[in-house]
């Protein structure tokens, strides 16, 4: 019996590699925020996510959720009730990627004083040069 071929690792540097689209979904502004917001593993309604993620439009949140769902990171559950009730949660794969994204987001938040200082230094250097 033939063995199934092993899945190949992605190559982000290859122009046509589908891993680039996954990277875009995960690292987009809204993708990062959705993954971090869902990191608890609890089911969340669309309206809850929209309230928590300041500045995201309904359209962008819907597109972000669809992209993450397509990549297997988010599970969407539609409940057969009136009015419609849809909720979202991370899959096992989604919890893994959310952990990595959360580390980056946490580092950025913790490093903001140093980043702001570097920005101010850079601004002072460019205004005198």
From TrEMBL:
GO terms for molecular function: DNA binding. Keywords: DNA-binding, Transcription, Transcription regulation. Gene3D superfamilies: Winged helix-like DNA-binding domain superfamily/Winged helix DNA-binding domain (1.10.10.10). Pfam families: HxlR. Residues 17-116 form the HTH hxlR-type domain. Signal peptide: none annotated. Coiled coil: none annotated. It comes from the Bacteria. InterPro entries: HTH_HxlR, WH-like_DNA-bd_sf, WH_DNA-bd_sf. PANTHER family: HTH-TYPE TRANSCRIPTIONAL REGULATOR YODB, TRANSCRIPTIONAL REGULATOR, MARR FAMILY. This is Helix-turn-helix transcriptional regulator. It comes from Ideonella aquatica.
């Amino acid at each position: 019996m033939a063995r199934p071929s092993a899945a190949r690792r992605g190559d982000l540097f290859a122009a046509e590699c589908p891993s680039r689209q996954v990277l875009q979904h995960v690292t987009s502004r809204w993708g990062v925020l959705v993954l971090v917001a869902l990191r608890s593993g609890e089911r969340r309604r669309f309206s809850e996510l929209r309230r928590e993620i300041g500045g995201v439009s309904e359209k962008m949140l819907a597109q972000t959720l669809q992209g993450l769902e397509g990549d297997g990171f988010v599970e969407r559950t539609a409940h057969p009730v009136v009015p419609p009730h849809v909720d979202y949660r991370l899959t096992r794969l989604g919890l893994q990627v959310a952990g990595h994204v959360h580390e980056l987001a946490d580092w950025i938040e913790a490093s903001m004083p140093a980043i702001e200082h570097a920005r101010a230094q850079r601004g002072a250097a460019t205004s005198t040069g």
